[in-house]
Amino acid sequence: MSAVPRFAEAVDWPSGTIRGEGRLTVQGADLVRGAAEQLHRCGHRRITVDLAAVGAVDDAAVPVLRSLVDELRKAAGELVLVPPSDDPAAHPTTTSASNSAPIGRAATPIAVRAGYGSVKNSR
Q1: What's the burial of 95, exposed, middle or buried (CB within 10 Å: 0-12/13-18/19+)?
Q2: CA–CA dist 42, 44 (Å, integer)
Q3: 8-114, what's its fold?
Q4: Which DSSP state fits 88?
Q5: I need a labelling partner for 73 at 20 to 30 A (CA). Which of 17, 43, 100, 111 fits?
Q6: Distance between CA atoms of 104 and 84, rounded to whole angstroms?
């Protein structure tokens, strides 16, 4: 089996949604943070981060997302997190690196594991 592909993001400006796919590293989480900050500066109060197509989440990415939640909360914003999908077909591969959360069901509770508080799981 091959490794999970690099992280890529797409921003839907009208809806305030950031969609990610591949392996979410700390660098990928920082890209998400930058896009979310820009969306918030442009007037979006509710920002959705859709990680349904993410195949693995590095442990180092979680604190970046947690700080984004706190930052948006302080600025009267809201972050809606769509966790990685339970469906293996949504992921390009079914492997993960040793420092990543397992793919599928185990990766889903990212918001709970990270102690996100008021982050809403849209599922």
Answers
A1: middle
A2: 6
A3: Transcription Regulator spoIIAA (3.30.750)
A4: G
A5: 100
A6: 7
